[in-house]
């Protein structure tokens, strides 16, 4: 079953994708993402392929006649897997800067290509690293979901940034970075800041903000893309060095919506968020009733203290 169902209490679309529960569980010695095993027949550098068990599809089945009292529609969209490397045991933090720079070009390529599909309204690029966030395969990879609607959190970000822009006459993130100080910034280069925001929801949450106002990753220049890659690599290395393990995280890229009547260039600011599910090496930051039910997060750590820990973690 593939369909979208509207929650009448919140106005949110919920993806019903019962077929995903039948995904096979493969043995550790037969990684389906390694060359020649299942997904990819030959050796590769970086590669993108359609998810075998997608939640969304460009040609989803027609929905059955709705006899129930809720709205539903076809689960239109696309789900892709983005392979970072063919080497099974190569962690993101061990990759070369060149490999990360090429990954950013792949993100831009997929963003550009999928933007040509008029029914696609939002392209969400992300990575789930570690079993703590539900990653079933350890081989370094990310994913992309192309939605036919604006997901709830993106909708809220868009609404807030737009309201702030028309109230203050300036992009909210551009205004925020003017007041950044050393207590917040982990590292900066010519084009980007990495920081623990004072409004972090997770203890070890890190954001990456461009210094120049851009609304999507495809607006970055070649030099800015390289600077972004360097900072992405630095962030993951700091996590791994600080905790002496491949630290789990959710990495999320936030670009402006596409294929709508509205122009977002002036007030939507592209950014990246890292949200690790741990509050220490051996303790999980559980999403309990307050976070899940009310979407109100409680951070048990002082963001300045976390920023200091990451600042003091020396990496190559």
Question: Can you offer a commentary on this structure?
Answer:
- The structure is a single chain.
- The protein has helices spanning 97-115, 152-168, 172-178, 222-243, 289-294, 303-311, and strands at residues 2-6, 13-17, 47-50, 72-74, 77-83, 122-129, 141-147, 185-188, 192-195, 206-210, 249-254, 271-275, 278-280, 283-284.
- It is of the alpha+beta class and 316 residues long.
- The protein has a single domain (41-48, 80-311), classed as 2-Layer Sandwich (HIT family, subunit A).
- The strands form three sheets. The chain has a nine-stranded antiparallel β-sheet with strand order 3-5-7-6-11-12-10-9-8.
- α1 (97-115) packs across α4 (222-243).
- The protein is globular and about 60 Å long.
- 29% of the residues are buried.
Could you say how many structural domains there are in total? 1
Tell me roughly what share of residues is in helical segments: 25-40%
CATH superfamily: HIT-like
Distance between the termini: 48 Å
Named CATH architecture: 2-Layer Sandwich
The fraction of residues in strands falls at 15-25%
Which CATH top level class fits?
Alpha Beta
Q: What's the gyration radius in Å?
A: 20 Å
How would a textbook summarize the main sheet?
Answer: 9 strands, antiparallel
Mean pLDDT across the residues is 93
Helical segment tally? 6
Q: Quick one: overall form?
A: globular
With strands numbered from the N-terminus, the spatial order across the biggest sheet is 3-5-7-6-11-12-10-9-8
Low-pLDDT segments, ≥5 res: none
Specify the oligomeric state: single chain
Number of strands: 14
Order of helices and strands: EEEEEHEEHHEEEHEEEEHH
CATH topology: the name is: HIT family, subunit A
